[in-house]
Amino acid sequence: MTVNISSIVETDFRERYNIYLRTKKQRIFDKYIGFNELEDERKIVNQQVMRSPGRRGEIIKNEEIDKEFSRRYSDYVNSNKRI
C-alpha cells in the first residue's frame, strides 16, 4: 500500500513540475535571445542538491528538466525539417 501511494505522489509531482517547466522560456540556438529561465531553474535545483544530496525531489526535478530540454530540442529540429 505504501509503495502504491508513494508512486502516485511521485507521478503527480512529476506531472505538476513538468507543467511548471513548460511555462519557462529558454533559447535554443539563440532563437529567444535573453531567455534562460529553464537553465536558471536547473542551476537552482543543482544548488539545492549540493546543500542536501540524495533528496528524491531534486532527483526528479533534474530528470524532468532533462526531459524538457530534450523535448524542446526535438521540437526545434522537427520544425526545421519541415521548412
Structure description:
With 83 residues, this protein is an all-alpha fold. Helix content is 76%, strand content 0%. The protein has one domain (2-82). Helix 1 packs across helix 3 (56-82) and helix 2 runs antiparallel to helix 3. The protein is globular, with a radius of gyration of 15 Å. The mean pLDDT is 83.
What structural keywords apply?
3 helices, mainly alpha, single chain, about 80 residues
Secondary-structure content class:
mainly alpha
User: What about the largest sheet?
Assistant: none
Question: Secondary-structure element sequence?
Answer: HHH
Shape: globular
Determine the fraction of residues in helical runs and give it as a percent range.
Answer: over 70%
Mean pLDDT comes to: 83
* Number of β-strand runs: 0
Give the percentage of residues in beta strands: under 5%
SSE arrangement:
Elements: H1 2-22, H2 37-51, H3 56-82
Helix pairs in contact: 1-3, 2-3
Short characterization:
The protein is mainly alpha-helical and 83 residues long. The chain is 76% helix and 0% strand.
